[in-house]
Amino acid sequence: MSETRTRILVVDDEVAIRRFLRTGLGVHGFAVSEAESGATALQQATIVLPDLIVLDLQLGDMDGLDVLARLREWSSVPVFILSVRARETEKVRAFELGADDYIVKPFGMAEFVARVKSALRRRQNLQEAEPMVTLGDLSVDLAHRIVTMRGQMVKLSPMEYKLLSHLARHSGKVLTHDQLLRHGWGAEHVGDVHYLRIFMRKLRRKIEPDPTRPRYIATELGVGYRLLNAEQELTLVTAED
Amino acid sequence: MFMQVVDFLYGSNWSTSVRDKPWLNARAILWCTCLIGASGLIAHGLDVWLNLKHVSVIFLPAVVICAVVWGMLASILAVLLTLAATSFFFYEPVPNFRVDDPREFLDLVIFTLVGIAMSQMAAFARQQAMAARRRADDMARLQSLSRKLADAAEPQAIANAIVEQARGKASANLYEPQAGLLALVASEGPERPAMVEAQRHWAGFLQTKDGRKQSQGDGWSFHLLHIGQPLNQGGEALGMLALQDDAEAQPAFLAALLDQAASALHRGHLAAAMEDSRVERRTKRLREAVIDAISHDLRTPLAAIMGAASTLESFGTLCGEAERAELLDSIREQCLRLDSNFAKLLDLSQIRAGELLPKSESVELADLVQAALHHGAHMLRAHRLEVALPMTLPLLTVDSLMLQHALDNLLENAAKYSPPGSIVRIGAHQDDGRVILDVSDRGIGINAADMERIFEPFHRAEHPPDGEAIAPRPPGKGLGLAIARAFVEANGGSLQAISEGEGRGATFRIILPVSAIHGSEA
Prior knowledge:
The complex is a heterodimer.
Chain A lengths: L6 E5 L3 H12 L4 E5 L2 H11 L3 E5 L7 H9 L6 E5 L4 H9 L4 E4 L4 H20 L3 E4 L2 E4 L4 E4 L2 E2 L4 H12 L4 E3 H9 L7 H15 L9 E4 L3 E4 L2 H11 L1
Parallel strand pairs in A: 1-2, 1-3, 3-4, 4-5
Antiparallel strand pairs in A: 6-7, 7-8, 8-9, 10-12, 11-12
Helix pairs in contact in A: 2-3, 6-8
Chain B lengths: L1 H9 L3 H4 L8 H25 L5 H15 L1 H19 L11 H50 L3 H12 L5 E7 L2 E8 L6 H14 L5 E2 L4 E8 L8 E9 L6 H65 L5 H32 L8 E3 L1 H11 L8 E5 L7 E3 L1 H17 L6 E9 L2 E8 L17 H4 L16 H12 L3 E5 L7 E7 L10
Parallel strand pairs in B: 7-9
Antiparallel strand pairs in B: 1-2, 1-5, 3-4, 4-5, 6-8, 9-10, 10-12, 11-12
Helix pairs in contact in B: 1-4, 3-4, 3-5, 4-5, 4-6, 5-6, 6-7, 6-9, 7-9, 9-10, 10-14, 11-12, 12-14
């Protein structure tokens, strides 16, 4: 029975944080393992083979980002970064190193669990190679390269489709400006955020009902963009109403 | 009239510049020759007309003029020229330098003696005039120094006045010990002695306790500035003045100058010390006010959290479902408040430390607004939100996080000072190349008198009514707006408050100038 439960490894040197995450995740049926240092975290990751890792950036023995980099050498397990620092440069570094989400302390448990579930589902979809991403009225058919709004086909330029499909393939996850620029235009355009903004504006005008209040493509200020997935879109809409 | 003629001949103002021109220069030689030549012509005329035989006397005025204007060397030159001219042109045999007539020879000998005597006297008179002039000069410099020193209040201004007046025609440098090391505090003129030299002399003064000036071979001399008794009788060394080419200066003048300079420096130090202690008192008061404010902003939410949590712990079973939910909600709310207050303090410390370096990046205004609305959603839950952003706004080039924080604070402000259920409106438009973003509420409004004061952090603390006790700060007020303004201004924009008065709502307007806009695209 216990083998089938989803296992989450919580890495934080603060007992209080580990305690409430253990409780909060436990009541949602997750099996929780804990590590209080970077070294134990790397060890645990190979032993318990978690389905998701929650990683604090400030650990006693090493920097959380170093732990992430070491992990990424052999594992593609989803990693959630926890941090008290909200600087965008740090978020960008985390995403570039392969983090799946970045959560600034303090945070609410409901949102945290929702994000964990969404990341787990995304991983499952990725493994099943779901060729169709649907979000409200918008659907992106990755197999046939077709984008529709309420069943109507939307005409996108090749570059607009390239950006949208890249976001859709990582639906729910933040892609940094540089990751998008590298994908769309190549490494020499890295840093050219203005370029990206112009294409995003065009893209949003075609797929967003109100481009000044986007509900499909969310901006992470100073970091990048994210195509919301179904439940993220739902929470955003209810939060505003 | 006489002085004008002298100035004209000398080529510049004789009395003031007589000190520094060499006594015999090209101009002097030329003029001497001309004067003697002119005298020769007059002598020739008189010779022809009156058959005047002993013409040398005609040349005497020219010799005297040369002596007065250019000094002794010039007058000797004039005497020699006269001897040459008379023996060649006037005394037989002509034209020849020989003089055969003993009477004429005697005439020339007497002329030479008289000429040399006169040039001696003229040169002496000249020196007297120069000395008088110098005394007057020194007096004027001392007076001017006193005036300048009286005007100067700060130590730096005093130091500048000292070197300016002490330099004379050359360079002057003033040194003072600062934190145990000698430092150059003021400098006038093109040159400076090497710092190691200055340090050596300073150490010499302190070691020997001898206040007399120390000279160097290269024209620099070092003078100790001290207050009270001489150093060896308990006087205090204040600093050191290095003067270039002060050999001509009167010792009395120098002594007076050093004396004045020292007492002015002393006065400056006393004034600065008083100002320091005043600033320190004010800083201490401000620090206390800031600590009070921080304690308030951090402890109040903590108290609420503690209260709610301990109520749940001790009496949770006695509470109904609704009460429990309320207490839990209050814990969550107060945590957010604590977090937001903490973020503000971090922002403020960043601003205070002067570390605001905007990381400018192309950004959609709509994205900024969305981020701020997302962040402030819990505060604005009770309000009706209207967002009207035109699609045609150009992209901005700003530090998006700073601007989002500014906007966060404006939204929090609007939520805090307007009643639940009222409208909070966010609007934007483009005007004359500027992008204008308004956050309007229908809340308590702002007094005309407070329109600027609300942007000052801890403003009551910064301007206490004449150093008296500080009125307590209204909870949470001021800090957010101060941060908002600092962040907007760091991005080249401006933030202003608009209100028709108390009870009539307020609009906070962010204006981002053309320079922050990247140009508009379709």
